[in-house]
Amino acid sequence: MTTLPLSLPPVTRALVGLAQIVLLWETRRASRQALKQLDAHMLRDIGLDTTTAGDEAAKPFWQA
Description:
By secondary structure, the chain is mainly α. It has helices at about 10-35, 40-45, 50-60.
């Protein structure tokens, strides 16, 4: 995430920070959904096994 200038009003900084978090969560959700769609061959191509991929895909969106 980027650092916001202190010259922004506090409410604006808070709202932009919240939007950044929501965007991060959406990115995680979409990535994990895509990971669920990969077969074993494609997972091997990116260096994952099915167990590791399944564990990652099962994480909630808010968890890194």
